[in-house]
């Protein structure tokens, strides 16, 4: 019962945060209603994700997810993604700017998803295996459960490991039981700054974030590269280490998805984070 209550609380919190942010975004600007998918926001005036991202696109991006040797067969679906995205379209997810910007953002987000849930390293055609997993298969319980944290203690009997579309290293199990909620949690992570003095991945990608002089010196620029810095910069050691295999895999998924959707990608220093200094690193990570 306690686990179910925790899961329900997480879902309610995610949706409440999305709704509150949508109301703030609306402000005094014109708001549009496009039906169930997007309403009450100026971003809805730009159209919706289903205007340009159809079920056949999802199938082309993730053709092997239901293969018999995949580890989450039958779990992920286009319908689950669209239902989750609809909670954030009023905030600008996939609805900021014109059609090309929307396509690029969806491809960027799904590029992260595909890379983080792929089992392509062990099979041919590695970019076709996104959404192969919905949970970490060999979790290190001692790594994810910090017994020294007296404020947020690990719950006895609960296993802590990566779950969802962009793995969340926490309870509840609902993220590996409901694809819509798994996508919602991942999009919330994309849309929301998780640390002070740090933008969201959405903001650095669509151009809402303007780099300061310190950012420029730290080689942080708007674009896809900065999304990796925000999503994984603190603790995952992807950025600022040159052109590592892990970083290149994420970029490759993004470019591949854009190619499938018929849109060109940016180039140069905005595409990667090879030389970027981590945004606002924690003391533990900055010393590692």
TrEMBL record:
The keyword Signal is annotated on this UniProt entry: yes
Taxonomic path: Eukaryota, Viridiplantae, Streptophyta, Embryophyta, Tracheophyta
Catalytic activity: Random endo-hydrolysis of N-acetyl-beta-D-glucosaminide (1->4)-beta-linkages in chitin and chitodextrins
InterPro entries reported for this sequence: Glyco_hydro_19, Glyco_hydro_19_cat, Lysozyme-like_dom_sf
Keyword Signal among UniProt keywords: yes
Signal peptide (from-to): 1-22
Single GO MF annotation: endochitinase activity
Organism expressing this protein natively: Lolium multiflorum
EC number: 3.2.1.14
Protein name: chitinase
Domain Glycoside hydrolase family 19 catalytic intervals: 56-167, 171-273
Example of a GO biological process term: cell wall macromolecule catabolic process
């Amino acid at each position: 019962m306690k686990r179910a209550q925790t899961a329900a609380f997480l879902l309610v919190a995610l949706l409440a945060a999305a709704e509150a942010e949508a109301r703030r975004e609306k402000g005094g600007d014109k708001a549009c209603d496009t039906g169930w998918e997007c309403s009450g926001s100026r971003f809805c005036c730009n159209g919706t994700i289903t205007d340009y991202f159809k079920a056949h696109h999802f199938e082309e991006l993730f053709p092997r997810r239901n293969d018999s040797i995949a580890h989450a067969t039958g779990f992920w679906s286009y319908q689950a993604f669209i239902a989750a995205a609809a909670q954030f379209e009023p905030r600008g997810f996939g609805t900021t700017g014109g059609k090309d910007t929307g396509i690029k953002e969806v491809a960027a987000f799904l590029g992260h998803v595909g890379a983080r849930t792929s089992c392509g390293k062990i099979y041919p055609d590695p970019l076709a295996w996104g959404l192969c997993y919905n949970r970490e298969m060999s979790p290190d319980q001692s790594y994810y459960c910090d017994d020294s944290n007296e404020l947020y203690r690990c719950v006895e009997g609960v296993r802590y490991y990566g779950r969802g579309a962009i793995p969340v290293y926490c309870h509840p199990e609902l993220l590996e039981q409901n694809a819509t909620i798994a996508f919602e949690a991942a999009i919330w992570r994309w849309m929301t700054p998780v640390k002070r003095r740090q933008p969201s991945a959405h903001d650095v990608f669509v151009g809402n974030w303007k780099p300061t002089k310190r950012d420029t010196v730290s080689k942080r620029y708007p674009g896809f590269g900065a999304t990796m810095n925000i999503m994984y910069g603190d603790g995952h050691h992807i950025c600022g280490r040159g052109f590592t295999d892990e970083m290149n895999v994420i970029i490759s998924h993004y470019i591949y998805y854009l190619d499938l959707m018929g849109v060109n990608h940016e180039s140069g220093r905005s595409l990667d984070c090879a030389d970027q200094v981590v945004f606002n690193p924690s003391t533990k990570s900055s010393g590692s």
